[in-house]
Specification:
Layout lengths: L7 H11 L37 E16 L2 E8 L8 E4 L3 E9 L7 E3 L23 E7 L4 E6 L4 H6 L4 E6 L10 E9 L14 H7 L5 E4 L6 E4 L5 E7 L6 E4 L6 E6 L2 E9 L2 E3 L4 E6 L8 E6 L15 E8 L26 E11 L6 E5 L10 E3 L4 E8 L5 E5 L4 E4 L14 E4 L4 E7 L6 E7 L2 H5 L3 E6 L13
Parallel strand pairs: 1-4, 3-8, 9-12, 11-19, 20-23, 22-29
Antiparallel strand pairs: 1-2, 4-6, 5-7, 7-8, 9-10, 12-17, 13-16, 13-18, 14-15, 14-17, 18-19, 20-21, 23-27, 24-26, 24-28, 25-27, 28-29
The structure holds CU-O-CU linkage (C2O) and copper (II) ion.
Length: 493
């Protein structure tokens, strides 16, 4: 299709050959304000729906090693879903049933975890708790009803740091047909990174030993929808809705559109916010998401680079490092769009109540093994392989006080349920937002409120989404509505 060239400009030339109207002013497609092909280089392919029922989405997913191109001329043998990096976009409507026929053609066992989805434990994708690992050559059928609109993602839960680092992740968009944010041009923007050596071969997931683990290994190539700095053609002044996912195994992103631009954040991990907020930057720890409206503004024909600024996630995370370029936006010469004000968004969110909540204290800790002196993360000093689960009753509300005593930040993720984050006064942070992954900055404390439903008993894990940290001990489980003693520590996760 597109002839790739090593030169950025030629990529745009190639696009122009494909879509001659790109920079010249044609607006097509029903209510789109963008030129034809504006997103052709960046848009994620979707998994084809094999089921004619409009409320059932049925797809095939195969995990396998495949060669993918992450930049013109730069290919890598990655671990993929359906040969794609990232995996196919799964797009459903809220309330749909999703059926995934999954086949593992990797050399090792794996699973799929549906990050952020409030689904039954049998579908949660954690070996040892919710299903057996899917062995090489094996299959598993995931089948569940999707309960909440929002932007989610999927990834394995076996040797997570290695497998996610090798490329196994994809976006999961749950739309609400009744929602109208007033913007018709939208994109899913999945941010990640990949570690390659000089030969372009996947870097060992153990690089740097236990010190590498303690920091959280970051890949040396930053990717946006699987590409290094892909381009987008935009009409100046026309709003776009971006659902942004941080699927990197350790890296934080701090999105910056440059001078004169702000983000209108309309949603987070679990759907729309109570009301939208304007922000100069969007900071996402590993695993977090944001739903934002952006309005690129620049002279027709000029370029705008979306960057990630350095974010201090602890010792060694900002020294001798630079901002990263993420997306290259070329402004088409369609006349500037004068956007009418966007509709005001409101979402009714009923907060949980902290009164009477069970108090749970969790200290995120970093220690060293007394014999081999290797670093080891833990919760209250105990790594997951020795931990006792947090016990919870069906329907119970818990107030988690999470204190991070370590020199690095930890985006804490709970499977299967949403958190509300509380402020210093113990009140829910406004606008209210459902979170499944909450950054606990180094040397700080956060209070999180969680209410466990009464119909989804199970062993639900929670862990740092810097996946090296999870593998290094920072993981435990909530044993919900089950008697004590049923907990079995995982051999691998
Ligand atoms: Cu994306 Cu166990 O998590
Ligand atoms: Cu961590």
């Amino acid at each position: 299709m597109i002839e790739r060239s090593t030169d950025q400009l030629c990529r745009i030339c190639a696009l122009l050959v494909m879509f001659p109207g790109l920079l010249s002013g044609q607006v097509v497609k029903n209510d789109s304000l963008q030129p034809i092909g504006w997103d052709v280089e960046i848009r994620l392919p979707e998994a084809p729906d094999l089921n004619p029922d409009p409320t059932v989405v049925e797809i095939e997913m195969e995990a396998r090693v495949a060669t993918v191109e992450i930049a013109p001329g730069l290919t890598v043998k990655a671990w993929t879903y359906n040969g794609l990096l990232p995996g196919p976009l799964v797009r459903v409507n809220v309330g749909d049933r999703l059926i995934v026929h999954f086949t593992n053609n990797l050399p090792t066992s794996t699973t799929i975890h549906w990050h952020g989805l409030r689904i039954p434990i049998e579908m949660d994708g954690v070996p040892g708790y919710s299903q057996p690992p899917v062995e090489p050559g094996g299959t598993f059928t995931y089948d569940f009803v999707v309960p909440d609109a929002g932007i989610y993602w999927y990834h394995p839960h076996v040797m997570s740091a290695a497998q996610v680092g090798f490329g196994l992740y994809g976006a999961f968009l749950v739309e609400d047909p009744n929602e109208n944010v007033g913007v018709s041009d939208d994109l899913v923007v999945l941010l990640s990174d990949i570690g390659l050596d000089d030969e372009g071969v996947l870097e060992s997931p153990d690089s740097g030993g236990s010190t590498g683990m303690a920091f959280g290994r970051e890949g040396n190539h930053v990717l946006v929808n699987g590409k290094k700095m892909p381009s987008l053609i935009a009409r100046s002044g026309a709003p776009q809705r971006w659902r942004v996912i941080n699927a990197a195994k350790s890296r934080y992103f701090k999105l910056d559109m440059g001078e004169g631009h702000r983000f209108t954040k309309i949603g987070g991990d679990g759907g729309l916010l109570e009301y939208s907020v304007e922000q100069d930057f969007i900071v996402l720890g590993a695993g977090e998401r944001a739903d934002v409206i952006v309005v690129p503004k620049a002279e027709p024909g000029s370029q705008l680079i979306v960057k990630s600024q350095l974010h201090n996630r602890g010792y060694g995370s900002i020294e001798l490092r630079n901002n990263e370029d993420l997306i290259d936006i070329t402004m088409s010469d369609i006349p500037v769009y004068e956007s009418p004000p966007l509709p005001e968004l409101r979402r009714q969110i009923e907060p949980f109540h902290a009164e009477g909540a069970t108090q749970i204290k969790l200290e995120l800790t970093l220690g060293q093994d007394q014999y081999d002196k290797k670093f080891e993360y833990g919760i209250n000093g105990i790594p997951f392989w020795e931990a006792k689960p947090v016990m919870a009753k069906l329907g119970e509300t818990q107030l988690w006080t999470v204190e991070n005593t370590t020199p690095w930040s930890h985006p804490l993720h709970l499977h299967g349920f949403f958190f509300l984050v509380l402020d210093e006064n113990g009140q829910p942070v406004r606008p209210l937002e459902w979170k499944d992954t909450v950054d606990i900055p180094f040397k700080e404390t956060r209070q999180l409120l969680v209410q466990f439903d009464d119909d989804r008993p199970g062993t639900w894990i929670f862990h740092c989404h810097i996946l090296d940290h999870a593998d290094g001990g920072l993981l435990n489980a909530v044993q919900l509505g089950l008697p004590e003693g049923m907990f079995k520590p995982m051999s691998s996760h």
